[in-house]
Write a structure and sequence with these properties.
By secondary structure, this protein is mainly beta. It contains no helices and 10 strands. Strand 6 and strand 7 form a beta hairpin.
Length: 114
């Protein structure tokens, strides 16, 4: 793994909400810390209500993690474009985040330990 990336089990129970709806809750979240960036919580895909997510055409590339795919969150009042990302085939060094989703910490999305 890149020296500046650390993946650990996120202790406790984590939830993610958007537009008043609970998108997921898990005790199996991962915490990815990368350099000076704030930690990112990755939720197992199986613990997320995928019916609220629409696949996006957006992709990005990280030299350390690989290619990220994006999803938009559909709420009652609006669509939050490209608010979720996933490394479908991450680099071997960060293989633990495969089949996990991360959510941008924007006003309409809440990721918290409960």
């Amino acid at each position: 793994m890149a020296d500046h990336i650390k993946i650990t089990k996120a202790e406790g129970t984590w939830s993610v909400r958007a537009g008043g709806a609970v998108l997921g809750e898990t005790t199996n979240a991962l915490k990815l810390t990368e350099g000076d960036y704030p930690p990112v919580i990755y939720f197992p895909r199986g613990d997320i209500a995928m019916a609220f997510l629409d696949s996006s055409d957006k992709t990005t590339h990280c030299p350390h993690k690989g290619d990220a795919s994006y999803y938009s969150v559909v709420t009652k009042s609006r669509t939050l474009n490209d608010a979720v990302w996933s490394y479908e085939n991450p680099n071997d060094a960060v293989a633990a985040i495969k089949d996990h989703l991360a959510f941008y910490p924007i006003d309409e999305i809440t990721v918290e330990q409960i």
